[in-house]
Specification:
The chain is 37% helix and 23% strand. It is built from ten helices and eleven strands. The strands form three sheets. A five-stranded antiparallel β-sheet has the order 6-5-4-3-7. The protein has a four-stranded antiparallel β-sheet with strand order 9-10-8-11. A hairpin with a 4-residue loop joins β5 and β6. 14% of the residues are buried. InterPro entries: CBASS_pafABC_assoc_protein, DeoR_HTH, HTH_11, PafC-like, WCX_dom, WH-like_DNA-bd_sf, WH_DNA-bd_sf, WYL_dom. One of its GO terms (molecular function) is DNA-binding transcription factor activity. Residues 2-57 form the HTH deoR-type domain.
């Protein structure tokens, strides 16, 4: 990702007087044009990087400028390493590991043991239980498209099952709730959209079709769910049986549980009403009952009845031998 690459370039320039753009491009597997865009970004952040022409030329810090190597404390560097290792659980790249090694190299030997302890305290694992290998090719292709500003094409199936062909300008990868999304400008809709990677098929680069990055709306909130049912339920009241208290604690936390009659427990939450909410409540099975609102209670009851009918009317399947 771009942030890790920028940090890597800065650290390389701290340790080397000059480096060629082609060497950086080969190392990070991007185009030379992308490297020069990175240099512009670093310059805009207040670190004066200049290019020197000629046979022995390259990229280096401006003469007379010295960047304080202690601009980041060991605690701050440890936070970066922890973040990189956590990101790598779902978005693993060789650049992440190289950057971790470079950060380790700038820590003084006398502080190495303490630094390693700080970076081993927390690991946030973003990867799904079934692994992220099936999404890795899509992530790599989209990452390449974002870096090179190349259009992508794909077939998309939305939350309602409608299938369409899309061509879009990829701008950002987003990981939310263990699900990957692509924020892109859709040429068909002529607006920014969020596409769930699991719903994208036949993803490909539109070679030689580049675009100029747009500024996405600053006020646009993250909308990972369908906009068809975007209204907020005033308050969802769920009742859990005593034997399912552990489920309520796992999903909502002990502080959210309110005692009710018959050794039951109540949870009161506000949610957007959409397919996610219906599926989430149904996933809790018979251990939970929707008390309010009444229309949500009826929706869940109807869907539960449809599930029961599938098993009551279906022929008993043959057993595996």
């Amino acid at each position: 990702m771009k942030l890790e690459r920028l940090l890597s370039i800065i650290i390389l320039l701290l340790n080397r007087r000059m480096i060629q753009a082609k060497e950086l491009a080969d190392q990070f597997e991007v185009s030379i044009r992308t490297i020069y865009r990175d240099i512009d970004t670093i310059n805009a952040a207040g670190i004066p990087i200049v290019t020197y022409q000629g046979t022995n030329g390259g990229i280096g810090l401006s003469e007379g400028y010295r960047l304080d190597r202690n601009i980041l404390t060991n605690d701050e560097l440890a936070s970066i390493v922890t973040a990189l290792r956590s990101i790598s659980t779902s978005y693993g790249k060789e650049e992440h590991q190289r950057l971790v090694e470079k950060i380790n190299s700038v820590v003084l030997p006398a502080h190495t043991a303490d630094f390693q302890q700080k970076t081993s305290r927390v690991l946030i694992d973003y990867s799904p239980w079934d692994g992220a290998e099936r999404l890795r090719p899509k992530l790599q292709l989209i990452d390449e498209a974002i870096d090179s500003c190349v259009l992508v094409s794909f077939i998309y199936s939305n939350a309602e099952g409608e299938i369409s062909e899309r061509i879009a300008e990829p701008h950002m990868l987003i990981l939310k709730g263990r699900q990957w999304y692509l924020k892109a400008y859709c040429l068909e809709k002529k607006d920014f959209r969020l596409f769930k990677l699991n719903r994208m098929k036949e993803l490909d680069l539109e070679q030689d079709k580049t675009f100029i990055r747009r500024d996405p709306p600053n006020h646009e909130p993250f909308e990972g769910k369908s906009k068809v049912h975007s209204s907020m339920v005033p308050e969802v009241v769920l009742r859990f049986k005593e034997e399912a208290r552990h489920l309520a604690e796992e999903w909502f936390g002990m502080e959210e549980l309110l005692p009710d009659k018959d050794n039951c427990w109540l949870v009161k939450k506000t949610y957007p009403e959409d397919e996610w909410l219906y599926r989430f409540i149904l996933s809790l099975g018979h251990h939970v009952e929707v008390l309010e609102p009444q229309h949500l209670r009826e929706i869940i009851a109807n869907r539960a009845e449809q599930i029961a009918n599938v098993y009551h009317s279906a022929k008993q399947p043959d057993k595996f031998h």
